[in-house]
Structure prediction request, 130 residues.
Amino acid sequence: MEKIKMSITLPVKAKDLYDAWLDSKKHSAFTGGDANVSKKLNGEFTAWDEYISGKNIELKEGKFIKQSWRTMEFKSNAPSSTLELTFEEKGGKTKLSLFHYDLQKGDGKKYEQGWKDHYFEPMKAYFSSK
Prediction:
């Protein structure tokens, strides 16, 4: 199993970033891919035009999100991976820490690049323009 740890600091309040992650319209807007997400515990979600799917395992408003996570590329018999997001606000900016684990061997580098290209870079542009 492989894991990824990354972080980015964005010019947005922690609660606003947390809320945007769990809001279908805003999630779609900051990634550029269609998302259908849930704010509810055990609520299911899809992102990036249904390429990503999973469900909310743990939610601490404005602070922490834990989700089961998989893509269309996962083998049907492969278990879902786990994504943990931590939101730490300082001076009106938020450090988003991403810990993605239980990835299949060989998938770490690919998904790390995907997080940079399809989440962190578009989020930087989206929240900087607000």
In short: The CA atoms of residues 60 and 66 lie 9 Å apart. The chain has one domain: 2-128.
